[in-house]
Design a protein that fits this description.
transmembrane, membrane, 10 strands, about 160 residues, four-stranded antiparallel beta sheet, single chain
């Protein structure tokens, strides 16, 4: 083998390695920089056969950010936008009359690459193992493309 062939092979190998490293860097940047929508829900819910009642009054802060602390009453739902795969949610159950904190719960969330998740705050406060709820749009009836035909038939 001539030295020119060795150099050409070495350059090809370096290009392949650099391309693989750039792809890995792109994947890491996507994973750690991805934005997520966290929907926080304070409604009565049944998860895995266990009923969790809505909490009369609570506050929730994501990643310890007290500036964006959210207040919830029964049947409230709010959304927070976050970046990155892991976040901590801190929930304080508050006595409405005395403004005294009755219970504080902190939970770490691993969101992966899902664009949005919905959490049941009563389940988080009860320290349930499963606190995720289906997103609101997933409960909608599926459109099979025959909605116009069905509407005409019903008239």
């Amino acid at each position: 083998m001539s030295s020119a062939t060795k150099i050409k092979g070495r350059q090809t190998m370096i290009c392949i390695i650099m391309t693989a490293l750039l792809v890995l860097l792109g994947c890491a940047l996507f994973y750690y920089g991805k934005d997520h929508d966290i929907i926080l829900d304070n409604k009565s819910v049944v998860i895995d056969g266990v009923c969790y009642e809505a909490i009369p009054y609570l506050t929730a802060a994501i990643d310890g950010n007290s500036e964006t602390e959210l207040e919830f009453y029964p049947d409230d739902r709010d959304m927070a936008k976050v970046s990155g795969p892991r976040h901590t949610i801190k929930i304080a159950v508050v006595n409405e009359e005395t403004e005294e904190i009755v219970k504080t719960v902190e939970r770490t969330l691993s969101l992966g690459i899902s664009p949005s998740v919905m959490l049941s705050l009563p389940a988080v406060v009860a320290e349930a193992s499963d606190v995720m709820l289906p997103l609101p749009k997933t409960n909608a009836p599926q459109d099979d493309g025959n909605s116009e035909e069905n509407a005409e038939e019903s008239m």
